[in-house]
Design goal:
Number of helices: 2
Largest sheet: 6 strands, mixed
CATH topology: Conserved Hypothetical Protein Mth637, Chain: A
Order of helices and strands: EEEEHEEH
Shape: globular
Number of strands: 6
């Protein structure tokens, strides 16, 4: 599995399907979930009051340098994140980390 299996180019930027693992001992991408076809993203925050969602958005912004927003799955571990900007540049940046 590679990054092109879990991302889609859209006019606004790049959509990425992720699986969030809250309350982890570290934050960051952790590879792929082959069965769910998602990028595994670990965050330290608990899934309370949107804390984990905020950390996911900040983490994706930190990795890519572009604003990101969760567009699907606000109350679920399986989410879709929209990363705003040049989709080719975002894709190549994410490939370095995943």
């Amino acid at each position: 599995m590679d990054l092109s299996d879990v991302t889609r180019k859209v006019p606004e930027g790049l959509e990425a399907d992720i699986l969030v693992s809250p309350r982890s001992n570290r934050s960051g991408p952790e590879g792929f979930d082959e069965w769910r076809k998602r990028i595994i993203v670990r965050v330290k925050s608990p899934p309370l009051d949107g804390k984990a969602n905020k950390e996911v958005e900040e983490l994706m912004k930190g990795l890519t340098g572009c604003r990101s927003e969760i567009i699907l799955g606000h109350l679920n571990r399986q989410k879709t994140v929209l990363i705003f900007g040049d989709s080719e540049k975002i894709f190549s940046t994410l490939e370095e980390f995943i």
